[in-house]
Specification:
The protein is mainly alpha-helical. It is 41% helix and 10% strand. The protein has five helices and three strands. It has a three-stranded parallel β-sheet. The longest helix is centred in the middle third of the chain and has 13 residues. It is globular. The termini are far apart.
Amino acid sequence: MCEIEDEMFHTKYTIVIPPSDKYPEFVTQKVYSMLYYGIIPFWCKYDYDKNNLYSEFPDFIKVETPEELVEKINYLENNPIEYHKLLNELYELLEDKYFDNRFIKELFDDVLNK
């Protein structure tokens, strides 16, 4: 990532794919990583995050077909106000706790206190 960081800041969209068909419930941090760079992450709702762990993300970015993905990107490209509205909504999901030790502490506290 460090080698292509400048390019990342100039990228607007990405598709997030599942790491493996063997573990359909597994999700990665890529969604949040892309947001950090200002990239709107899309994913196929039938292939990635099947358990809706990322339920706080708007349904708009969860697509069913490649054609729907293209339609949504074209819509955002032709409607800059909607593009910025969506991007700002997604930025709200990047809470400060993800950039320090609070999130990890919450996870461990939850596991250890069960």
